[in-house]
Amino acid sequence: MNKTGIKNIIKLLKSNEGSFMNYLEEIIANISGNRVHIQTHNFPDPDAIACAYGLSELLKAKGVEAEICYKGNIERTVTAKMVGLLNIKVKEYTNPDEFNEGDEIILVDAQKGNSNIVDMNGQEIICIDHHPIYDPVDYRFSDIRPDVGACASIIATYYFDNNIDMPENVATALLYGVKMDTADMKRGVTQLDLDMFYKMYMMADRDILSELDSSVLHYDDIKAYKDAFSTIDIREDVCFACAGYECKEALIAAICDFTLTLDGVNLSIVYSPKQDGIKISIRSSGKYLSGVITMNALKGIGTGGGHDNMAGGYVSYWRPDGEKISEAEVLKIEQEIKTRFLKEAGIE
Known about the structure:
Elements: H1 3-21, H2 23-29, E1 35-39, H3 46-61, E2 65-70, H4 78-85, E3 90-92, E4 104-108, E5 123-129, E6 141-144, H5 151-161, H6 168-181, H7 191-201, H8 206-213, H9 221-230, E7 233-235, E8 238-242, H10 249-260, E9 267-273, E10 277-284, H11 290-297, E11 303-306, E12 310-316, H12 327-344
Parallel strand pairs: 1-2, 1-4, 2-3, 4-5, 5-6, 8-9
Antiparallel strand pairs: 7-8, 9-10, 10-12, 11-12
């Protein structure tokens, strides 16, 4: 190889290195104006809100006003508790038309086209996420790292890589996001998650962290646990449970985490029939790949996917022709969901 070729390779490597070390600069450069929306997945969990909050504070310091938005009620959840304790300003949207076509949107902890995020009017210009890519999208800029345990860890790097002081409230939110999405550093943890956790721990408000870790279970939530426990169906090492009609998204996930702790269970699937479809939460102890199993099991009847240890899915009651299925067909779908998951787990 001649000297010119070597120089070009060195230049390319330096360019890639610069891009890696300056994600924040690239994000700023790809925002056209001085205002942007930061959208999380529907019914956001602490990791999603922490990411949006951490990023919004960075953008504010750079002169960009950012509104944190989402769809799905978060009342009476630990997410709402975190928002209140840290005074995070968020806004729930219910209709895609509430955005203008020219509005610029940054997606965090979610990707365009996924079943767990509403497609708002506007332009999804940037995506920051830690979930696998199922449908590639041509964003202006993206930082998607499926190997990372919590999206909050990615946002935290933007502070440290750019030597930007992290406010105590931001450190508290991001640290709690990491804790929650990695199940207290026991699920899907990478070196990056550990590094960010270590750096943020002494910066965070540990009194607020302790309060967030205290139980947020409400009396009404007990019914969902009761419904789930009364419907537990274990097939070898796979556990199914129904959390009842219109169970909250966060509660479905919490019950799924709990049922995975049952002796001998390596894969837990908890679902809740809702007005327009069935919401499903999946957890694995490591034996099964939750994301792959969910994607394959719901192919053709719904959508789903996620990480190796945790995933989510949704099956709509609406046919492509706009007709809604009957109640009898709903019961058949619930049984088909079980059959499909068992098949993917190798259990006939």
